């Protein structure tokens, strides 16, 4: 089943993370996850799952006969609730606006002291709260809010049940648009049929590699520019040499074209490329493209510069053709039979 579809069934609890909110969140959600999902920010294991509630307040006005009605959103509130099954004094400090926590050592014992109370001690701290529900098959989903616990807490020491701290976070706007709740879900990637060099340049190397893998392209090169060139070459070959980033000549036999590749077929085999290449045609390609073609043909290139690699390619091509290609040795026949 694809991730993020309407057929998805959400079942199970998750994990809760908390970190002090300073007023700004990262632009990209992946960066938010990277910062928040750490052992230090793990609030504790939860029991009873988590719930989010959004409650709008609408004001309705209408004429005396009820023909014209207008509704206006005048207020809204959001609340995230969860029960902490594992906790300690540090956890309680995050749930209390008037908390003061210190540590002291006496002899061979160390104590953590948490003081709570005193309205003048309200620290005003807000927290970013992230709830993570993991589902590797149908996709993870996340709840992201900013706020603080407004329900206080109750600690019960009972002989037959564990103490669960029920937290209730009143959500505050955490961006310029006034967002109270972010519900984020993983969805399957959908790729464009073709990409331009500008579109690929706007992506990260990891994204380019992911797209290439999904399309069946084999990338070469070490840096981003080389990988983009390799991607475009593979894309051109997969389309028979006729993509917008490919060759203008029909048939795909211009420099960099491969000719004879069916749409969607991965150009990783020798028969997917031209039989022979001239020095001029190789000069029109990037080093990554030359290396990709050489790999498909089974040529082992030597040299560090483009000129050296082209020379190595032509030498391998000549050897593979028994010395009879256009770029081969013109004296090949003489060497084999120059004397009777």
The gross shape turns out to be elongated
How much is the radius of gyration in Å?
32 Å
Helix amount, in percent? 10-25%
Q: CA-to-CA gap between the ends?
A: 74 Å
The helix/strand order is EHEEEHEEEEEEHHHHHHH
Number of helices: 9
> Structural class, please?
alpha+beta
- Strand count, sense and closure of the main sheet? 8 strands, antiparallel
Ranges where pLDDT stays below 50 over 5 or more residues in a row are 243-268, 325-340
Mean pLDDT: 84
Tell me the total number of β-strands.
10
Strand content: 15-25%
Give an overview of the whole structure.
- Helices cover 24% and strands 25% of the residues.
- α4 (205-215) packs parallel to α5, α5 (224-238) crosses α7 and α7 (287-297) packs parallel to α8 (306-320).
- The protein has helices spanning 29-36, 89-94, 197-201, 205-215, 224-238, 279-283, 287-297, 306-320, 332-337; strands spanning 15-20, 42-44, 46-62, 69-84, 100-106, 109-115, 127-133, 141-149, 165-172, 182-185.
- The protein is an alpha+beta fold.
- β5 and β6 form a beta hairpin.
- The strands form two sheets. Strands 1, 2, 3, 4, 7, 8, 9 and 10 form an eight-stranded antiparallel β-sheet that branches. It has a two-stranded antiparallel sheet with strand order 5-6.
């Amino acid at each position: 089943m694809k991730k993020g579809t309407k057929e998805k069934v959400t079942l199970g609890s998750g994990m809760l993370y908390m970190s002090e909110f300073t007023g700004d969140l990262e632009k990209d959600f992946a960066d938010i996850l990277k910062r928040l999902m750490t052992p230090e920010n793990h609030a504790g294991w939860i029991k009873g799952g988590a719930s989010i509630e959004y409650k709008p307040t609408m004001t309705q006005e209408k004429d005396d006969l009820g023909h014209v009605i207008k509704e206006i959103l005048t207020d809204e509130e959001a609340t995230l609730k969860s029960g902490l099954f594992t906790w300690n004094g540090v956890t309680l400090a995050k749930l209390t606006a008037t908390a003061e926590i210190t540590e002291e050592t006496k002899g061979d014992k160390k104590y953590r002291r948490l003081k709570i109370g005193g309205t003048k001690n309200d620290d005003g701290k807000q927290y970013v709260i992230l709830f993570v529900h993991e589902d590797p098959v149908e996709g993870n989903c996340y709840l992201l809010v900013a706020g603080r616990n407004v329900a206080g807490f109750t600690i019960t020491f009972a002989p037959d049940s564990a103490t669960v701290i029920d937290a209730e976070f009143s959500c505050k706007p955490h961006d310029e648009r006034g967002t109270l709740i972010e519900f984020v879900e993983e969805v399957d990637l959908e790729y464009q049929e073709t990409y331009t060099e500008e579109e690929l340049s706007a992506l990260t190397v990891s994204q380019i590699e992911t797209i290439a893998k999904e399309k069946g392209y084999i990338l070469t090169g070490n840096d981003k520019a080389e990988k983009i060139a390799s991607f475009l070459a593979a894309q051109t070959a997969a389309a028979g040499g006729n993509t917008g980033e490919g060759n203008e000549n029909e048939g795909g036999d211009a420099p960099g074209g491969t000719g004879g590749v069916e749409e969607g077929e991965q150009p990783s085999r020798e028969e997917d490329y031209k039989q022979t290449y001239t020095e001029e045609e190789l000069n029109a390609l990037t080093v990554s493209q030359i290396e990709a073609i050489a790999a498909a043909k089974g040529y082992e290139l030597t040299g560090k510069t483009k000129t050296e690699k082209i020379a190595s390619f032509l030498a391998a091509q000549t050897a593979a053709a028994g010395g009879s290609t256009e770029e081969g040795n013109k004296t090949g026949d003489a060497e084999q039979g120059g004397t009777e």
